[in-house]
Amino acid sequence: MMEELLKVKDLCVYYPVRSGMFKHVNDYVYAVDGVSFDIKPGESYGVIGESGSGKSTIGQTLVGLLEATSGTITYAGKDVTDKHVRKKMQYNKEVQMIFQDSLSSLNPKKKIIDIIGEPLKNFENLKGVALKKRVVELLKTVGLDEEALYKYPYQFSGGQRQRIGVARAVAPRPKLIIADEPVSALDLSVQAQVLNYMKDIQEKYGVAYLFISHDLGVVHHMCDRLAIMHKGRFVEVGTRDDIYEDPLHIYTKRLLAAIPQTNVLLRKKHRDERQRLECEYDSLKEDYYDKNGHVYPLEQITKTHAVALKKE
């Protein structure tokens, strides 16, 4: 059995809500509430949910941008929840991130050779001709030529900037890339280009992906296993076939029904199905959420499929 590259156990990230003159904590926002999953080397794992579900918080916590309230993050067999451990084992070299907003994630005052070259200088001590050669190779990997080296981020389109973000993430040869909504702001044709480049990179370098998205349609061909997230918890976890062919949680069904359909002849049928699911969601909510609106714990249905359902 293949050993996990990354294992997350009961991860919680809570934000305190303060009020009053002395800013006492009187409540918490449960952004991530007891999430567990693992990623194997070379695998694509998807976390899908609506805005505010907590999925991006998971990614930011894994790369150290946010601190976990509780739970453990294990990478290559070592607990990396503590930032001092991460620094010792060069965790930030092996785990990189692609951000949703490509423009704000690239320094507007730096040229592309400096943006992509920064991790190469920090982690591989490359300089001069060797650095330039490596940056050119990375640009070619994402379909950009040498002319891009001395340009600034604002001189590129959104799709090109996102490809530069992909090249920067790949630069230090990571084993895991966390892709946070990498194509959500792009046109459909450009989305396909970026996803294809990411697939090619995975095949070439054997990198694993944690793919964070709100769109089940986008991740269909990218991910081997998926977790559907709502209100800070996973509501359904399974293989691609489990989620797309046999969805059991009402929230998963609603997300699948929201995927745009190209056959105009079936437009009315799809609209009726979405309306039926909305009625089912309202009438059977207590089967999927407790009286406080929290998601029930996951129950194992098959070896690969788990769903958050009310116990009989």
From TrEMBL:
<dbReference type="GO" id="GO:0015031">
    <property type="term" value="P:protein transport"/>
</dbReference>
<protein>
    <submittedName>
        <fullName>ABC-type oligopeptide transport system, ATPase component</fullName>
    </submittedName>
</protein>
<dbReference type="GO" id="GO:0055085">
    <property type="term" value="P:transmembrane transport"/>
</dbReference>
<dbReference type="InterPro" id="IPR003439">
    <property type="entry name" value="ABC_transporter-like_ATP-bd"/>
</dbReference>
<comment type="similarity">
    <text>Belongs to the ABC transporter superfamily.</text>
</comment>
<keyword id="KW-0547">Nucleotide-binding</keyword>
<dbReference type="GO" id="GO:0005524">
    <property type="term" value="F:ATP binding"/>
</dbReference>
<keyword id="KW-0571">Peptide transport</keyword>
<dbReference type="GO" id="GO:0016887">
    <property type="term" value="F:ATP hydrolysis activity"/>
</dbReference>
<dbReference type="InterPro" id="IPR013563">
    <property type="entry name" value="Oligopep_ABC_C"/>
</dbReference>
<dbReference type="InterPro" id="IPR003593">
    <property type="entry name" value="AAA+_ATPase"/>
</dbReference>
<dbReference type="Pfam" id="PF08352">
    <property type="entry name" value="oligo_HPY"/>
</dbReference>
<keyword id="KW-0653">Protein transport</keyword>
<keyword id="KW-0067">ATP-binding</keyword>
<dbReference type="InterPro" id="IPR027417">
    <property type="entry name" value="P-loop_NTPase"/>
</dbReference>
<feature type="domain" description="ABC transporter">
    <location>
        <begin position="6"/>
        <end position="256"/>
    </location>
</feature>
<dbReference type="InterPro" id="IPR050319">
    <property type="entry name" value="ABC_transp_ATP-bind"/>
</dbReference>
<keyword id="KW-0813">Transport</keyword>
<dbReference type="GO" id="GO:0015833">
    <property type="term" value="P:peptide transport"/>
</dbReference>
<dbReference type="Pfam" id="PF00005">
    <property type="entry name" value="ABC_tran"/>
</dbReference>
<dbReference type="InterPro" id="IPR017871">
    <property type="entry name" value="ABC_transporter-like_CS"/>
</dbReference>
